[in-house]
Design a protein that fits this description.
The complex is a heterodimer. Chain A is mostly helical. Chain A contains seven helices and no strands. Chain A has helices at about 5-10, 15-45, 55-65, 70-90, 95-100, 100-115, 120-140. The longest helix of chain A is centred in the first third of the chain and has 32 residues, at about 15-45. Chain A starts with 5 loop residues before the first helix and ends in a 13-residue tail after the last helix. In chain B, α5 runs antiparallel to α6. By secondary structure, chain B is mainly alpha-helical. Chain B is globular, with a radius of gyration of 17 Å. Helix content of chain B is about 80%, strand content about 0%. The chains are: A mainly alpha, B mainly alpha. At the A-B interface, α2, α4, α5, α6 and α7 of A face α1, α2, α5, α6 and α7 of B.
Chain lengths: ~150, ~140
C-alpha cells in the first residue's frame, strides 16, 4: 500500500474528522456494555428458556421478542456494531482497537463507585496503565493511511 | 498444549477478522456526514464487499472459541492472556493495512496490554454478561 506523505496525514486528521472519530468511539464504548447488560437483565427476568417442545419453544420465543429490555439491548448492540464499522472507515485500526481496552478499566471503576466493591492494588495499577495507554494513543494521529473510495 | 492452541486460535481469528473488517471499511471510504441516509447507504455498499464476508466467520470463530476458553479457564487467566490481541492487532495493522505506528502508539498499546493483564490477573471472576460485553468489544 502507498505510504502517504505527512501533509496528507495532517489533512485526514482535521478537527471535523477527529470530532467524528471521538463521537463514534464514545458511542461504541457506551452502547456495547449497556446493550449486554440490558440483554442479561432481560433474560434474567424471563428466566430459563424451555425449548423442549414446539409450543414451549414458541412461548419462549414470544417472551424474548416481547421484552422491551431485550429490544433495548439488541438496539444498543446493533448501534455499537454500526459505530465500530463507521469509526473503522475514519480511523486506523491500531488507533480504534486499543480504545476498547478502556472497558476493562471502566467496569472495575463502576463496581468501585456504584457497588462499593474492593479494588486491589494490582487492579488500580492496571487501570492507571490502561488510561495512560489510551492517553498516549489519543496523542497520535487517528489516521495514517490513504482514504479509500469516497462516497 | 490445548491452552496455547485455543489462545492462538482466539487471537489469530479475532485479529484476522478485525483486519478484514477494517480493510472492507477502508475500501468503502469515509462517511462524510453521520446522517441516517448516508449510514444506510454505507451499509448497503458494505454488504457487497467480499472482505466483510471473510471477516464475519473469522470474528464468529474467535467469539465462540473465546466463550469456550471462558468455560475452561478462569476469567483471571482468559482476559490477561487474550490481551495479547492488542499487540497482534498492532502488528496486523502495520503489516496488512500499512498503518504507520510511531513509538507513542506502540507505547500506548503495550501499556494497555500490560494494564489489562494487571487489572485482571488473580482477581475474582466477573458475571458472564460482563465477559460478553468485553467479547463484543474485542
Amino acid at each position: 500500500m502507498p505510504v502517504p506523505d505527512p501533509v496528507h496525514i495532517r489533512m485526514r486528521t482535521s478537527p471535523t474528522h477527529t470530532t467524528k472519530t471521538y463521537i463514534l468511539l464514545f458511542l461504541m464504548l457506551a452502547l456495547g456494555p449497556i446493550g449486554n447488560i440490558a440483554l442479561a437483565m432481560g433474560m434474567n427476568r424471563i428466566g430459563s428458556l424451555d425449548l423442549s417442545t414446539a409450543p414451549a419453544f414458541c412461548a419462549s420465543f414470544r417472551h424474548v421478542v416481547g421484552s422491551p429490555t431485550i429490544w433495548t439491548g439488541t438496539v444498543c448492540l446493533a448501534g455499537c456494531l454500526i459505530c465500530y464499522m463507521l469509526v473503522l472507515s475514519l480511523a486506523d485500526y491500531s488507533f480504534v482497537f486499543p480504545f476498547t481496552g478502556m472497558t476493562y478499566a471502566v467496569v472495575p471503576l463502576l463496581g468501585y463507585f456504584f457497588l462499593h466493591e474492593n479494588v486491589s492494588a494490582a487492579r488500580w495499577s492496571g487501570i492507571v496503565l490502561i488510561f495512560l495507554g489510551v492517553f498516549l494513543i489519543h496523542r497520535t494521529p487517528s489516521r495514517t493511511t490513504e482514504p479509500g473510495a469516497t462516497n | 498444549m490445548r491452552t496455547a492452541l485455543i489462545l492462538t486460535f482466539v487471537v489469530v481469528t479475532g485479529t484476522g477478522g478485525e483486519i478484514c473488517l477494517t480493510h472492507a471499511m477502508k475500501l468503502l471510504g469515509e462517511v462524510h456526514h453521520l446522517r441516517p441516509r448516508e449510514i444506510v447507504t454505507f451499509f448497503l455498499r458494505a454488504l457487497r464487499v467480499g472482505w466483510l464476508w471473510l471477516a464475519v466467520p473469522l470474528m464468529a470463530a474467535s467469539f465462540f472459541s473465546f466463550l469456550a476458553m471462558l468455560s475452561w479457564f478462569p476469567v483471571s487467566f482468559v482476559f490477561p492472556a487474550t490481551s495479547l490481541a492488542y499487540v497482534a492487532g498492532a502488528f496486523g495493522a502495520k503489516i496488512f493495512l500499512g498503518e504507520r505506528l510511531n513509538a507513542t502508539r506502540w507505547a500506548g498499546i503495550l501499556l494497555i496490554c500490560v494494564g489489562v493483564a494487571m487489572a485482571w490477573v488473580g482477581n475474582s471472576p466477573v458475571p458472564q454478561h460482563i465477559s460478553s460485553a468485553f467479547t463484543m468489544l474485542r
